Amino acid sequence: METVIRQAGEHALLVETGSLEVSHRLDALLRASRPPGVAEIVPGPETVLVSAPGADLSRLRPLLSRLLDTARVPVAEALAPGTTVTVPVVYDGADLDGVAALTGLSTAEVVERHTGRELVAGWLGFAPGFAYLTGLDPALHVPRLTTPRTSVPAGAVAIAGPYSAVYPSASPGGWRLLGRSPLTVWDVSADPPALLTPGTRVRFEAIAAP
Amino acid sequence: MIEVIAPGPYATVQDLGRPGYGHLGVPHSGAADAPSLRLANRLVGNPEDAAGVELTFGGARLRFVAGAWVAVTGAACPLEVVVRGRTVRQGMRAPFWVAAGGELRAAIPSAGLRTYVAVRGGLDTPVVLGSRSTDSLCGLGPPPLSAGATLTVGPSGGLPPPAVDVAPPAPPPDALRVVAGPRDDWFAPDALAGLCAQPYVVSQDSNRVGVRLSGPRLERAREGELPSEGMVAGAVQVPPDGQPIVFLADHPPTGGYPVIAVLTSACLAAAAQLRPGDRVRFRLDRTVS
Questions:
Q1: Taking burial as the number of CB atoms within 10 A of a residue's CB, which of A18, A61, B32, B107 is the most buried?
Q2: CATH class belonging to A5-78
Q3: Is A161 near chain B, with CB under 8 Å?
Q4: C-alpha angle B193/B266/A61, rounded to 5°?
Q5: Domain boundaries, chain A
């Protein structure tokens, strides 16, 4: 397979991985033994950005190419990078009925399908600690709200398109709210501050309202 | 301690930001014109990464409760220090002493946008994820400065004495150098040449996230959406309207619009000094590959 490593300015290389799984494996390899000068490793669905101000990119490029070859080899699921987090959810979200109507499911079936699969934190964006959770049951793929809410509380559990998410802090938001979790997914005093880092496997679990 | 009497149009505390958290959705942040903050710190004997004040369009008044060495860099403002009714003019890029009770007044810069005030000892404001910077995109760090806010100054014992009288001004480049890519192949073959052919005008809604430009539309060669990918400061991102945005310090760490080119690091500081209405040219740098 052709290796595409693109220049992203004087100090960064964008590695095309072609898939989220390869992005996660390359991300894990780079974090396990960080090449000198690398300041940022940012995985995306089909890329990993490697920022290395001050490093010699002509040396980094062949190293990334070799690591990418390693990352392309699938590994047994038990050896895949990432921990597993169970996210408890009170399924009483403002859009639960709307999602049921959109999908032709009952609200109980929506909850069943949301809790029925293990999701994987693909990458983070939109806000600090906001993980795009991939692997959502296709029956739950619904469009974003046409008019986003001006404020969604921290802990809101939502879906949009092929993704689910737990809002890490209060923010505007256009995703459809299924419920809320008491779990803190973003805490600037924690290390790491985000609970759901790229590669983390996530299982939602329905709980009764406290 | 420093008391903010007036912050001007927009002022924040900035150091060199919080690198290393991009994969968690945290912007790099830090001084938009980092070389200017580094210089201001060197002039007062601070480590280069000490926190200072980033002014936007000047207009600030800061009262020093205790005397302090101060240096001001970046966009050149007329500077005055008022102590007990006496006004003394001061110069840019040179350390000067502000006596206890003195008020530093920075007027509006004649050119450029962002001015940096470093204080010997650095600003000792709370640290969030390794940085004192205000992140305007997601609200990390302290809120922007407001009248009545106070800033603690860190200890200056053990710092080397200010050793430079005045630093020479660095003239702005005649054009912003860009390195092609990473997604230049998403654009029509002549789009890079088009970016560099005509000047662009800096739009009013520019901020610490990015410099929004208006000018010749950059046409795409392909339809569809780019999967979200990591972004760097200086990236020239092109939304579907074809009008480029140059990312500055508070840019989102990932984005879904293709980046046609990235500014050289030497030109990133110049981009951070562009003010609404300025005209700016790009020039392709072919030495990086």
A1: B32
A2: alpha beta
A3: no
A4: 75
A5: 5-78, 84-206
DSSP state of B168: P
The domains of chain B, with CATH numbers, are 2-151 (2.60.120), 176-284 (2.40.100.10)
Phi-psi group of B55: left, alpha or beta (phi > 0 → left; psi -120 to 50 → alpha; rest → beta): beta
Q: Please, what sign has the CA dihedral across residues B191, B192, B193, B197?
A: positive
Question: From the list B254, B259, B264, which residue is nearest A10 (CB)?
Answer: B264
CB pair distance less than 8 Å for B288 and A44? no
Residue A172 in contact with partner chain B when CB distance is under 8 A: no
Bridge partners (DSSP) listed for residue B53: B13, B117
The answer to whether B138 contacts A127, with C-beta atoms less than 8 Å apart, is: yes
- Cβ contact, residue pair B254, A130, below 8 Å: no
**Pairwise CA distance, residues B250 & B27, whole Å:** 6
Residue from A4, A5, A6, A22 to probe the interface with B (highest B Cβ count within 10 Å): A6
Per-residue pLDDT reduced to its tens digit, A112-157? 999 999 999 999 998 999 999 999 999 999 999 999 999 999 999 9
From B138, B229, B288, residue closest to A49, measured CB to CB = B229
* Length of chain A as a residue count: 210
What ipTM does this complex have?
0.94
Contact B23 A198 (CB under 8 A): yes
Would an 8 Å CB–CB cutoff place A173 in contact with chain B?
no
CA-wise closest residue to B134 among B273, B9, B250: B250
Interacting residues of B221 by C-beta distance below 8 A, sequence separation 6+:
B185, B186, B187, B188, B189, B191
Torsion of CA B117, B118, B122, B127, to 10 degrees: 40
Percent of chain A with pLDDT over 90: 91
Evaluate whether A133 touches A119 at the Cβ level (below 8 Å): yes
CA A56 to chain CA centroid, Å, is: 30
Annotation: CATH topology of A84-206:
Cyclophilin (2.40.100)
pLDDT for A3 equals: 62
Task: Examine the pLDDT at B195 and tell me if it is beyond 80.
Answer: yes
**b (16+ CB within 10 A) / e for B79-105:** bebbbeeeeeebebbbbbbbeeebbbb
Write the DSSP string, A51-95: E-TTS-HHHHHHHHHHHHHHHTS---GGGSS--EEEEEEB---TT
Identify all chain B residues contacting A44, using CB atoms and an 8 Å cutoff. 227-230, 254
Contacts of A78 (CB under 8 A, 6+ apart): none
Helix axes A20-32, A57-71, angle to 10 degrees: 120
Q: Find out whether B23 and A197 touch, Cβ atoms under 8 Å.
A: yes
